[in-house]
Specification:
24% helix, single chain, seven-stranded mixed sheet, six-stranded parallel sheet, alpha/beta, 17 strands, globular
């Protein structure tokens, strides 16, 4: 076991505090990663505050991890000491079910193992990236291309793949019209990636406060959803709408913005259920869909795509002592556009 410093929530809704945790010894197929940067995802807050249900404490959040390989197990073939690597939302799966074999480890039929707030197949709880080091199987570790700096690459391990995967799945390409609901940590990556895929991109935000930012990131249009005229002007406009917000929406209104056969895809996960009149789906053969991160191979594909197109997250680098303040700022939408912890400050 290796003892490392980390920031943990000792109980639900409790402030995070500095502590130490034990990392397992490096096994045959493990890599020991010296974590350099860890992104703060809204889902960290949902889980640390038990917004999505009962959780495991103490909790070390963090599934947007970027760092450098410090040691490798005897059987490791993918990585060597000094390689720049990342870890996202998963650290294990059964690897044998039909979903795992299809590269959909996040939908493992036995149950994938989350990077934190989970129990591994060895019975031990998992602790995430708000820490100095982590030990992960090489099969759940990805390579960060040289063209991406580690600080702006860290959020790609969740925010990047969470938006890339559905955009690819729903065929976003030149000639397609895409709307992104919300210009936050997920939304700003959705805009950048949809633009790089060649789509005509529209941001649907509560206000026009971030319009200049959205246009710089690659949006062609920017509308305020607080203006009822928006829903009249854009009726029947989009092939794909990507909802990145965690607030419950009037889904009927947003489905009205789709073209015939269009899809409204949710990657934001509100804590409360939604109401829906199914006629808003039936009329126009529309799809209301969901998407959850992506598999390991697709995550690597996304990182390579982002490096090729010069895409990184827009970040605000913080010290570990600022984590609790950052959580409050995320909840009040006061971040442009992803907090990243400099783990040297832990």
């Amino acid at each position: 076991m290796t003892t490392v410093a980390a920031y943990a929530a000792p109980a639900a809704k409790a402030p995070l505090e500095r502590t130490t945790i034990e990392r397992r010894e490096v096994r045959e197929h493990d890599v020991l990663i010296d974590i350099k940067f860890a992104g703060i995802c809204h889902s960290d807050i949902h889980q640390a505050r038990e917004g999505w249900g009962e959780a495991i404490f103490p909790m070390v959040p963090g599934h947007e991890i970027a760092g450098v390989v410090e040691a490798v197990g005897s059987g490791v073939t993918k990585f060597k000491v000094g390689d720049r690597v990342g870890v996202g939302c998963l650290v294990d799966s059964c690897r044998e079910c039909e979903n795992c074999k299809a590269g959909l480890e996040q939908h493992c039929l036995k149950g994938s193992v989350g990077t934190y707030n989970a129990v591994g197949y060895d019975g031990e709880p998992t602790y995430g990236g708000y820490a100095q080091k982590v030990v992960v199987d090489e099969a759940f570790t990805v390579r960060i291309p040289d063209g991406l700096s580690l600080d702006v690459a860290a959020p790609l391990l969740c925010a990047g793949i969470t938006t890339y995967s559905p955009l690819k799945h729903w065929g976003v390409a030149p000639g397609k019209k895409v709307a992104v609901i919300g210009l936050g940590g997920l939304g700003h990556m959705g805009v950048k990636i949809a633009h790089a895929l060649g789509a005509e991109v529209t941001v649907l935000s509560q206000s026009l406060r971030k319009k200049d930012d959205g246009l710089k990131m690659g949006a062609d249009h920017y509308y305020a959803t607080s203006d009822e005229q928006t829903f009249q002007d854009l009726a029947g406009s989009f092939d794909v709408i990507l909802s990145t917000v965690s607030a419950p929406l009037d889904f009927g209104a947003y489905l009205g913005l789709l073209r015939t056969g269009g899809a409204l895809v949710n990657v934001g996960a509100p804590e409360e259920p939604i109401a829906l009149n199914l006629f808003s789906l039936i009329g126009g053969n529309k799809t209301l869909a969901g998407s959850m991160i992506g598999g390991i191979a697709e995550t690597q594909e996304m990182l390579d795509f982002c490096a090729e197109h010069g895409i990184g997250a827009e970040i605000e680098l913080i010290a570990a002592s600022e984590i609790n303040e950052a959580y409050e700022r995320v909840l009040s939408s006061d971040v442009r556009y992803r907090f990243v912890i400099d783990t040297a400050t832990i």
